[in-house]
Amino acid sequence: MKIATWNVNSLNVRLPHVTDWLVREAPDVLAVQETKMEDHKFPAEVFASLGYQSIFSGQKTYNGVAVIAKERPVDAVMDIPGFDDPQRRVMAVTLGDVRVVNLYIPNGSEVDSDKYRYKLAWLDALIAWLGSERQKYPQTIILGDFNIAPEDIDVYDPLQWQGKILCSDPERDAFRRLIDLGFHDAFRQFEQPEKSFSWWDYRMNGFPRNLGLRIDHILFSDALRPQLTGCAIDREPRKLERPSDHTPVVAVWERS
DNA sequence: ATGGCTTCATAGTGAAGA
Fold first, then answer.
1. Is A104 a known active-site residue?
2. Are A62 and A87 contacting, i.e. CB atoms less than 8 angstroms apart?
3. H runs (alpha helix) in A26-162
4. Segment holding A20, helix H or strand E
5. Catalytic site includes residue A173
6. A26-80 confidence digits (pLDDT tens)
7. Closest nucleotide over all strands to A202 (CA to C1')
8. What pLDDT score does A204 carry?
C-alpha cells in the first residue's frame, strides 16, 4: 500500500497539481489538508474519473480534509469525539484492515496566543481519543499536517526557531506523547537526505534556499512495522507554478 | 525590517497561514 499526505493549500487552486500527481504516483491513498472547500463543491467526480473514491469534510475559506483512495473508505469519523470544534480538521476512515487518521493540526499562530492554547487543547483531546482507539484498531496510520517540527533536525535554523511556534516544547511534547501511545515516525525509519523538509515559506525564496521545516508526518502503529518498506518526501510538486507551500510525504507498505 | 508571499472573502483592505 502506497499512502501519502499533502497539504494542498486550496484544492480549488491546486486541483491540476493533485490530479497530475495522482496519475504519476498512483498512490492507494492520498490524505489532503486545507482543501478550503465546502462539501458540495468537492470535485469527487474528477477523482472518480481517475479511479479514486473520495470522502471529505470541508468548509469555506479555511481548513478542510479529505481522503482520496482506490478502495472505498468506510466508518468515517470527522471530529475528535467530545471535542466541540467547528473547524474541519479530522478525517478518520477504515481502508481494508487499516485505520487511517488524516489530521490538519492547528497552526497555533504564536506561542501563548489564543490560537496556541487552542492548538494545545486540540492536541490533548486528540491524544486522549487516539489512546482509546489503539485497542480498537491495531493497524493504524496517522498522517497529515501536524504543524509540529518534532526535532531540531527538522528545522533549517533551529536557533532562530527555538521556542517558536511549530517548535515550542509543549508542541514537541504533544508529538512525543502521541508517539508514546505506540506509534513511529515513518520518515525516520530510513536513512534520509540531510535538511529534509516538507514545508517552505512562500516568502524570502524559502524553497530555492531550502529554508524549510518538516511538519507533515506519517505515523504508524507497531503492528504495521514489519511491512513498511519506505518513506520519502516528494519535492517535485513544490517546483511547479503556483505550488502549495507544502509538498507530499509518501510511505509504502508491502501489503495492506 | 513583526516584513516577506499566497489564498480567500471582498470590492478596501485584512485575516490567516507557518
1. yes
2. yes
3. 44-49, 114-133, 158-161
4. helix A11-25
5. no
6. 999 999 999 999 999 999 999 999 999 999 999 999 999 999 999 999 999 999 9
7. B5
8. 92
